Amino acid sequence: MIELAVRRLPHAAGLPLPSYATEGAAGLDLLAALSLDAPLTLQPGARAAVPTGLEMAIPPGFEAQVRPRSGLALKHGVTVLNAPGTIDSDYRGEVAVILVNLGAAPHTIARGDRIAQLVVAAVTQARLVPVDELPATARGAGGFGSTGVGSGCA
Predict the structure, then answer these.
(1) Which of 2, 95, 129, 148 sits at a 20 to 30 Å CA gap from 9?
(2) Residue 110 pLDDT more than 90?
């Protein structure tokens, strides 16, 4: 387990810090830091950056991934637009979640609503090495759908 320094901004005062809902949860629940008297209604097809009221210092060698909440996606069609969104270790601004309503009905987000999950993950940076030829594989350059269709099992 790593430590993550978090700074709560004034508009997040009174909201709990993100937490894991269960002992085995991979993601911390991010909350909407909206004004009590100004909930956000996302119309179908609309998107918005929802503030969390948090800034954080992610240690070098790690990133934080902002991921959708499955219940919000299934029940309302609301998801994270750039999923997973990446928060780099050198970013120090407020974390905001880009939500989109892919559902058929408007969806209202209120202060303190759980809007996304934050998963902290190790990062390995790569050094690109130009070559004239890549090693061959059985798949080769086969792209989208090239490995065939499923076995018919659901």
Answers:
(1) 2
(2) yes
